[in-house]
Records
---
Amino acid sequence: MWVSPRPALLLLLMGVLRHGGASGLLELSLGKFRNVLLNQTSPVEAVIRNIASNVTVVIFQVHAQQSDVVISFDKTPSVNSSGVGVDRGLVSVLRPEQTVCTWYLRALAAGQVLSTAISIPCMERDPIPGGCNLEFDLEVDPNIYLDYTLVDIHIKFAPANLGYTRGASPPPCDSGTGQSSRWRLRYDVYQYFLPENDLSEMVLMSHIRKMSGVQSVKANGIKMLTLTADDKTNVYFSSLPGQGVIYNVIVWDPLWNTSAAYIPVHTYACSFTDLVDNCSSLSKLSTKVFFTAFAVLGLFTCFFGHRFWKTDLFFMGFIVAAFVFFVFITRVTGLSYDVRLILTAVAGIIGGLLLVVSWWRFGSVLLSMLVIGLVLGFLFSSTLFFTPLGDYRVFRDDVVFWVTFTCVALMIPVLFVGCPRILNILASGIVGSYTVVLAIACYVYTSLAYITLDLLRRVLNNYFSRAYTNVPFQRNDFIILSVWAMLALSGVTVQLRRERSEVPFPPHPYLIWKRERERRSTNVLDPSHHIPPLRERIHNKLLHIKEFFQKDQPAGERTPLLL
């Protein structure tokens, strides 16, 4: 991933306002962005003048990439009049005849912080974001609060209130639930993806502007869901470490058909400051080694899986055993990730060998094809739920999801029950080529890895069902999807052409061995019939070795002369 140079160098190119030892003044215009360089010691005074009389509320907001900034109404911030974070804003409710608004900005920690600021006006009929705040510190809080884990992202915000004229009292928040109260408001949650593999500050600054105003949010964002006043104002999304995402909420008043936007918030679901596993190097070394070796085996199986039948069985058995064991050991133990991955690799090898041994001993094509068909079926079902179909509300229910998922997965071996060779070639080509995608994901971000990763998250986490799993699909994903499709198509085609004149499956090795043994025991003309049994041959060999170490006897007469 590419990370931008120091902000100061960029500011020289952009002509951004710089502030030295004295406090600086930042003149703003409504609806216009300004980039500003902040520090801890010298607060910046942001001022808007000549505000029109039809504007009743001004929403001022500031954004930085990774360093917190402090925004306040006063030079000395207090808890109830300031906000701290990388994406923060304040609502200024205008008094009659007021034409000037002032806010103060500074960096929370030492060092310079590149930020961008904007002020957005609201009219008297526009709903006020966060106007019915009962949870956070500000009286009117238009901010979206975000926290993340490696599994999911959680955003929450305060309910909005109806708009009102200057000098009037705000409408009561809980006086009723009719159409004349704030309960008629609707909340549309939007998501916007930053360019993949780009962690630069300037990219964020340019794209955050597309998610600030109502019209720009509707034009550029992806509408994920709509909440009513009866719903809780918090939403969960699947976490995409290393991928920049911006979220915003538009509150809509259906009576007046007016809207207002909250303060957009962004995340990369990773840390810029950690020395290990930071945003620039997310994959661990153990993960890279595991999936690179897995991809080598998968690529071989993609083109030669049916010809090398035992290798194909080992590959499919490895997948099943490794997946089941990783889920089990993660749920019941607290071992570190590296230890779990090593044990998973060992369990996968054992599972693959067991499937090969079961084929050698019992020769059941049905059992082997059931395993192979389930692997292909689970990949097909995971791909189906990777599409927008997976975000349908009905699949929030775990019972509905898993029943549907299993039925789709079982459909594959059922459809191909009459042509097992075709099923095996399709499975080895498609599944084998997908391991290359997983290996690429260890080095370059691609959303295609979440086809199986989201399934694993849902198995391991009881509450992942509440998360929306939408992912970006950009240039890298199209390239890698083309590589996957090309490898799968090539592998299937090569195997079909090579195996069309061959027997569908190799003969049962154990039966061949038994038949050969019986033939040797009954056919006296067969030279192998006269070969001594294995026990006798081992005994003779040991005697030969024993004689080799015995001392030579002295020459001459060894018995007494007869008288």
---
Amino acid sequence: MVPVRFLLLIPLIALLNGYGVEARIRRYKWEVKNEFKSPDCYRKMVITINGRTPGPTIRAQQNDTIIVEVTNSLFTENIAIHWHGIRQIGTPWFDGSEGITQCPILPGTTFKYQFVVDRPGTYVYHAHYGMQRDSGLYGSIIVGLPDGESEPFAYDYDRNIILNDWYHNSTTEQAVGLSKVPFQWIGEPQSLLIHGRGRFNCSSLSVPSSDPGLCNTTNPDCFPFRLIVVPGKTYRLRVSSLTSLSALSFQIEGHKLTVVEADGHYVEPFVVQNLFIYSGKLIRFYRPAPSTPPGQGVLVYYPNHPRRSPLTIPPAAPVWNDSRPRMAQSQAIKARRGYIHTPPAVSDRVIVFLNTQNELNGRRRWSVNNVSFTHPLTPYLIALKHNLTHAFDQNPPPDGYDFLNYDIYERHPNANTTSSNGIYRLNFNSIVDVILQNANTMNPKNSETHPWHLHGHDFWVLGYGEGKFDMFNDPNKYNLVNPIMKNTVPVHPFGWTALRFKADNPGAWSFHCHIESHLFMGMGVVFAEGIEKVGKLPSSIMGCGQTQGL
């Protein structure tokens, strides 16, 4: 049998291409509500869109206008939806970041998002209120090239896969534990999902339930994800990760994967056995921790029966705590020849963010330069545009930390931190370097991977390194020739990541760790730029804090 070939695309934003094709308006009406579902065979209350999780896939072409009318039918919770990877040029108020760009959508109300998808590529959308992404409120956006254009690689079929982790506790239960004294960590996820399907071992329940429907492996909702393929054909796989905690390794047993795109930008193709993706015949992916079982789906070669199960034993998972292959893959990703956007040679400002775990009034927090982020009651975009100076702290957070004396390999003797909702104000059109530095947590000899996501922009990834960033020597090692552009980037344990972007998109933009619990615990910042160039704000984004009556 002739095996299939796979071209792998790691979403989220695509290369700028030509214009000139008449744009369309794509309209969607969504109802967001609570339903009981069993995506991993264990029944729990989830958040669905039109009865589904993952939600409906938005499909469009470059320059189309997307209109999504969202009705919040949750009984007691607000919502907001972020269009992850869409830069929202000219519409910063529809970025969907509650507390940053809009007031939340209240229960029983309808909110209209309207924006242009100006570049082709693979994107995602997800909740951006509390930790609701972990409840199932997420989905895909696929933006095609204009008619007559094609990618710099050939394929026969196009498939989309979302990877996720899954907890049985509700997000409210998780939030209460994260906020309590003593601190209660959310733990490892119970399952991993491939496009909304996983398999929990019902026999592992600590307390057997008298309800036979609570955990039922015969429930069709949790039948394994299956991808049917035709021998000899090439498949483009758009693989997205929307995990709330987990860094994943994705592989297809018996096959190699050629990586051709990352965050929507074309990369110089390279072949992998395992794809490390952050936050596989047999589709299989792993959470790099020993207590979470691997996620599993089935790749079925036509004309085999779709329900036929693999005869092989699943391959062994990569070593969960070995960060070296993850660092090597990060360093291997370069922009594709012919599609390189050369970064500016120098920057106007350098900001170094030290990621640490701390305590604030006895509660465990994550901090950046010893400041733990808190949301104001009034969204920043509205407060800045209407000059509501009392809506948030006008003092900016620090641009760095004590580089010379801070030991990133040791738990800091003073674990206390401060909190603030101050922001970083960037000069419009300035070039900004951000150095993300990881350090020891509050556990001895421990550092974690953090995937950082920037709203409203792409950035050049200039380099990765191990240990403490050397501000005098490490910039000389930056890749200024063919760096990949991304909007989400990992910072590896006890390591650093350097990125550069142009502050050319008027608005207020969140920059944060994409791990749900870490953002909830304060691991984020906000950039503001070109506020005077932001157009009139729509009244629909107001109604909370000091925006009432505007």
